[in-house]
Fold:
Amino acid sequence: MLKMISERLRQGYRTIPYPQGELPALPPRFRGLPVIDASKCQDGCRECSQACPTDAFVMDDGLQIDMGRCLFCNDCTDACPQGAIEFTQEFRLATRRREDLISDGRAHTLADALDRESQRVFGRSLQLRQVSAGGCNACEADINVLATVVFDLGRFGIKIVASPRHADGLIITGPVSENMKLALEKTYAATPAPKFVVAVGACAISGGPFVGHAEQHDGCDTIVPVDMYIPGCPPHPLTILDGLLRLLGRMPSQHDGKV
Structure:
């Protein structure tokens, strides 16, 4: 017992202060918001698009990246001869609208909060049912990490529950395989209204690396309505936490707006 107490004193307070204070420092190898410098792009060059395994590049209005498809894999930066693409340390990526995930990274719109009545209902106590709809367990693992002492999701009144009948909403991972389609529909139907849905990870948003495959449904918004999208493969736990707090209107003013 004395050794346990001594170790606890040595480690000190381990829970990160976010969202209070300065933004947390992430490892140098972390890949966050991708930014494109269009001035470096050569006319007709499609090296980045051709290297992308999920066709995440959009060429309609200049060069942009669909972060709902992006795997943050670095293949595009390795392929670009001009170094026009860079993955930054920006982890705040969640949006309320699917189209807001398509960006060059220079003016990324962050998720806004639920309406005032929904904030009143869910703001102090939020119960979520997690549905793994064919995921590889990477996004699921980063959701689980939020319950550890480092992030301590419970301090915000948010927790993962075992039954959809006890839930205020769903947090979905995976591309929705054919075998999970009915299960997702039943879970959504069993969740009492008012409710909302959060899609976590490239698979849940667009199908990820499985996009277009006949045995999956290219993300959960083809099955149920989605209220927030959290991109990544997988998203960092801070990205997920940031998105949930934004949805509840729990972010300090210095972290609001755009990045």
